[in-house]
Amino acid sequence: MKNKIKQNNMDVKNFLTGMKKIILTSIIVIVGLLAMGQVAFAASAVLSVLPSATSSIVGTSFNVSAQINPAGNNVCVIKGTINFDNLSCQNITLASGLMAQTVPTCVAPNFMIGIPKCASASQNLFSVSVKGSEAGQASLSFSGVKVIGAGTDVVFSSQSGTYNIVAVVKEPAVSTTTPTSTEPVVIPDVNNNNVENTGTGIEIPSGVGEFNPVIDNGENISTTTSSSSVAPTTENKNNGFVATALDGFSNISNKLVIALLLIVIMVMASLLYFRKKDENTPNIPKPPQN
User: What is the DSSP secondary structure assignment for residue 123, as one 8-state letter?
Assistant: First the structure.
């Protein structure tokens, strides 16, 4: 009887032990399933480059930034490496309010950035100043990325930036040569000669010998002729003025002489008239005086 009771107690004890194992295993499975369900149904965080696309000229700087969008998750730490393709890194600036265990630089673009109190909304991480190395496609992307939440990894995706780098358009060279004037240069004709066009764009008086115009870079024009009377010098100009004055004086003198002759003729005609009148008038004898 005692053995039977003892056997029953052993069976109950084994049953309870087995139930404890089953319950513990069930709890572990349920927790695992809940965790897996949360991971499966939670939206993925997105690590992206902004702007995602743009155009720039070779050698011209432009700025891009890295941003994390938790998409409803709590994101506390982000780490990874920046990759430059056909881009030259100029400077990397960490966003304010963040704590970086590893600060990215152009020489070592690795980063591990912590967000105080974590983030559940979009958060800028850093900005990068870059230049296009040569004409063509360029990109900035991430590798080795890991997004960590409150004690667990966060599912994420990354989006790189793709950029069109264009070559510098060279402007056509501006000619510094001073254009030659095509307007004819008229040389004063001091001798009232007829003017002829030599076909060189410069008109010279007829009857003049060889004419060699010399035009320097300052557009100063000098002339060389076989006759010294053609060059428009101050002496010739003065001679022209004197000749004109003498011609005018000669015209005035001729008019004065003609006027004087007319006056003399009128005076002589008057004298002749009065003389004939006196001859025709009869002599009346004067009465004798007492």
Answer: E
